[in-house]
Amino acid sequence: MPTSHHVSSEPATRASERALEPLLFEPLLKGRAWGGDRLRGLGKRVGLGSRIGESWELADLPDSIPDGRSRIACGLHAGRTLHELLAERGAEIMGMARLSPEGRFPLLIKFLDAAEHLSVQVHPDAAYAANVPNAHLKTEAWIILDAAPGAVLFRGVRGDVSASTFFADLERGDVIQHLVSVPVEPGDCIYLPSGICHALGAGMLVAEVQTPSDTTFRVFDWNRNDPNRPLHIAEARRCMRFGAAQEDGTPGIVRRKTALATESLGLVTRTLAKTKFFTVESIDARGGSELPIVTNGGPVIWCLPTGEAALHGPSGEALRLRHGDTALMPASLRGWIAQFPVSSTLLRITVPTSLDSAIA
Q1: What are phi and psi of 346, to 5 degrees?
Q2: Which of 235, 254, 273 is the endpoint of a domain?
Q3: Residues tagged active-site
Q4: Average pLDDT across the chain, whole number
Q5: CB atoms < 10 A from the CB of 78, how many?
Q6: What is the spatial distance between Cα 29 and Cα 154, in angstroms, rounded to a whole number?
Q7: Interval 153-202: pLDDT, tens
Q8: What is the DSSP string of 266-323?
Q9: C-alpha separations of 279 from 15, 150, 221, 227, 298 in Å
Q10: d(Cα 301, Cα 67) in Å, to the nearest integer?
């Protein structure tokens, strides 16, 4: 059951006649060989000693992906999938933003608990996705929520390493020396464009924002030799990038300590990632702060790693978010405000709209 509570003071009416409210989803928990049990700290139903690696907070993937579509946890549309609601009220949810080319919500939001190293992996680049059926871009960003002392992740291949050298050494199991090791701290953001080789390191808890794909090619799996986790070397050869081609112009690493911060009305905002697929902002709120929920014509995702938020609508509706909750604010949302009874950190995630394109 969800940990958040929804109430309404409006008279009962058909859901289809009511303005859309903020949408909270039931988490989809995924067992992983590298997972742990720390997602309990984000309010997820994870038993001690479990190996749960991922909690999918907002997902709208194809039917071919098991348990890949989020269901609404409470309110007028409780029990329905996001996909179903998009089919009926997509214009209200998306506004000036577009669905993915496949007709799905354009982002996938997760929490990841890496008790062990994730596999060294790569996702299809644009050329591979354009030429291979059912392969999709997977551009993503990791926002570090917690990291054990000395924890590192791996982002990209050293600039002086060629594809031939990399794959020759991979056959001998001697590939880690070629990866760029990145120490991180809570609040840092790591941007990973499709085609860049990467691995999340042990001892990290992160929020992940990504384009809606589950296409992953394992390059190296730390010699786990698990038959259920095959490698995909041939596919990786076709889409993995090297040298300057690994980057797309967006900063790959944004440190919380040095990110530009703006303060207004007790709220401190930092932009962590601004890409053609999504923008991620971190907002620190003091207890007692208040924030109008503004969508600017497109859907907005609120992910609350710490603290609480009480959301209030113009007609008395209310939704309480607790730490670990993720909510989708439809583009049509009007007149809602959020109050933060305790100091909280909010990740505000938006997708580009036609207005953004006009401004650019």
Answers
A1: -120, 130
A2: 254
A3: 218
A4: 93
A5: 15
A6: 25
A7: 999 999 999 999 999 999 988 899 999 999 999 999 999 999 999 999 99
A8: TEEEEEEEE-SS-EEEEEEE-TTEEEE---TTS-EEEEEEESEEEEE-TTS-EEEEET
A9: 31, 28, 31, 37, 12
A10: 21
| Residue 290 belongs to domain with CATH number | 2.60.120.10
Domain with 292, as residue range(s), is: 261-359
For 112-153, how does the pLDDT look when each residue is reduced to its tens digit (9 = 90+)?
Answer: 999 999 999 999 988 898 899 888 889 999 999 999 999 999
Q: Is this structure's pTM higher than 0.70?
A: yes
Residue 353 corresponds to which amino acid? T
Taking the C-alpha atoms of residue 354 and residue 358, their distance in angstroms, rounded to an integer, is 6
The answer to whether residues 164 and 186 touch, using CB atoms and an 8 Å cutoff, is no
Residue 139 in domain: yes
- What's the CA gap between 179 and 197, in Å, rounded? 8
Q: Which of these, 196, 202, 211, lies nearest to 184 by C-alpha position?
A: 202
Check whether residue 232 and residue 344 sit in a common domain: no
